[in-house]
Amino acid sequence: MKSVRIKLSKDAKEVYDYLNAKAELSKKERSLLKAINYKIELIKNNLSYGDVIAKKLIPDEYLEKYGATNLFRVELPDYWRMLYSVTEGESVVEIVAFVLDIIDHDKYNKKFGYKKR
Q: What are the sequence ranges of the domains in the chain?
């Protein structure tokens, strides 16, 4: 059985570190951080956890920056989203779930071209 490694992009790591720094004093950040850590464990156990984003809807940014050929969306508290892609690892017995972004609802809508009503 292949092992699963979770890797955060630079952008996702910045958000994760920010939430980690603020979590002690802020209930909202603590809640988001706890949810992210929980969802990461779910992803490790089920690589297709979350909603599959259709290939034609994958933002160009993810295609160009990360070469993402698949994309999954995981919903977080307070309308935040975590987006990840699954790739082969560096060894033949490893799969990497690469977290591309952890973003709030407004940034998610903008990235996917959704308009406010």
A: 3-111
